[in-house]
Amino acid sequence: MKILVPIKRVVDYNVKVRPMPDNSNVDLNNAKMSVNPFCEIALEEAVRIKEASNAEEVIAITVGKTESQEQLRTALALGADRAILIESDSLLEPLAIAKVLAKVVEQEHPDLVILGKQAIDGDNNQTGQMLAALLDYPQATNASEIKLDESNVTVTREIDGGLQTLQLNKPAVVTTDLRLNEPRYASLPNIMKAKKKELTVTNISDLGVDVNPRTELLSVELPPSRDAGIIVESVDELVEKLKNEAKVIT
Amino acid sequence: MSILVIAEHDNSSIKGATLNTIAAASNINGEVTLLVAGLDISKVIDEAKTISGVSKIISCDHELYKNFLAEDFAKLVLSIADSYSYILAPATTFGKNLMPRISAKLDIQQISDIISIESEDTFKRPIYAGSCIATVKSNDSVKLITVRATAFDPVSLDNNDIPVESIDAVDASNISEFVSEEIAKSDRPELTAANIVISGGRGMQSGDNFHLLDSIADKLGAAVGASRAAVDAGFVPNDYQVGQTGKIVAPDLYIAVGISGAIQHLAGMKDSKVIVAINKDEDAPIFQVADYGLVSDLFDALPELEAKL
Ligand SMILES: Cc1cc2nc3c(=O)[nH]c(=O)nc-3n(C[C@H](O)[C@H](O)[C@H](O)COP(=O)(O)OP(=O)(O)OC[C@H]3O[C@@H](n4cnc5c(N)ncnc54)[C@H](O)[C@@H]3O)c2cc1C
Ligand SMILES: Nc1ncnc2c1ncn2[C@@H]1O[C@H](COP(=O)(O)O)[C@@H](O)[C@H]1O
Predict the structure, then answer these.
(1) CB distance from A235 to chain B under 8 Å?
(2) Is B166 buried (19+), middle (13-18) or exposed (0-12) by CB count in 10 A?
(3) How many CB pairs under 8 A join A and B?
């Protein structure tokens, strides 16, 4: 069995992102970049499946700029067997990414594609479902548990009211939620080994996919700020304020 | 302009977020059709017939849609999609799971989680866990949108006898199957619908200690929520999580107890009208968004608060 794991290079989750002074976009100058946390979870799951002898190969793939090779090297250090960069000078929308990934799936024939449920930059939560639709594959989003047998994947999903379990035919698309697993750290020997693993680079124009943007970013602003609050000295004062000033309790 | 809103329900009643989504649709110039698909949905249809702002209901009552599996549900929506220039669903786990599947089939770039409609093709949406707000223009001919419920006041249930058209189910996909579901049952209001939410974080130390929040919640008629750290530590189930990757809430009063105020948590609650923070660390970032902060050990403050309410 073969598992494909699409990963995205994003601003590290600890970075406080602000708009550019002219509000044309977010300001990412010199920001620390990392693997999207949900993609790390996706990769960890794929590697664990392989370690349990339920898969032979784990392939990490990203669609992005040359610099994304850093994140692919991280993926290799974390246990991916090989990596693919589909190089693109511009950042693409989820539909375009899904189309590119669908092309690669047609070439690689993975049994399972595990993605993050969302990328923490755009917070779109679309790519996995779009990929599944384009391929007519079944999907399970927000996975908190994945079990495999010969022909099926059984996934427990986190939904608003609790948990739901689905059984999907393979090949299938699964997207990960936070509690699926806790990703490991790359060890120094594995970082060294990763340098020798295969990383192929393909230019996006070679795939013949329509990746023209469908949306325009008109501006980026800070959200409305909240007025500074006060520190109350006691529970009595808190209750008094909530009753008489804020009037939110009676 | 014709607008299709996809109703979220549980085969017995309409979910609140559907009403907020219809409210968002009402900001677009056009007639709103509501799609209600599920199994044995007569009660849902009766309720739907009263929703203000809806001109027509399309119903599909069939086994295939009982569990709202994205594969089959998307095919049903696609069978009627031609007639609409907008398709909207709530940005809940239901809508998030379903809509991109429809959008890819229609070759349209979906706009996720909108918080305002600026014009017929321009929308605002939070990005980077709500650190920034993007204004986005869609150049697709049809707009596929998921709506952040907290950004739109729900429409009321004071309409009557909206006409209902029944449509046939479409062929089954037969690629996925529902196995089981564990839906948490609670007597308290739903987190996303409650007027008051009291949430606990890692500072609560254990699941048992959440009873301190429960008893306050009971007195206030509040829902109980949690930070990711509290959920990860197993204090409470996953459906309690508030934040970037959990639920988005905007109650009249949000009380954060033993929660530090990480940006990912703030993303889920900072549009609440009044925020109270109880934390023993006076430098905790949560105090920067709190209207009323109480620097105190929660194990002292909570019993006292309960007694004084
Ligand atoms: C991709 C990603 C997505 C995430 N999504 C979410 C999300 O949706 N929701 C979310 O909440 N988090 C999310 N997080 C996690 C987030 O970054 C924080 O780690 C988390 O919110 C911290 O939870 P906490 O405030 O309960 O714990 P901590 O940060 O550990 O804070 C505990 C607080 O309790 C206080 N405290 C301790 N004991 C007491 C006491 N006796 N009395 C009073 N106060 C006390 C401490 O002073 C401290 O401020 C996400 C992280 C990532 C990477
Ligand atoms: N540029 C990209 N390259 C590879 N995978 C991506 C890319 N963008 C998004 N993905 C995958 O799709 C998931 C969801 O992203 P999104 O739909 O943008 O929220 C991510 O967690 C990744 O697994």
Answers:
(1) yes
(2) exposed
(3) 257
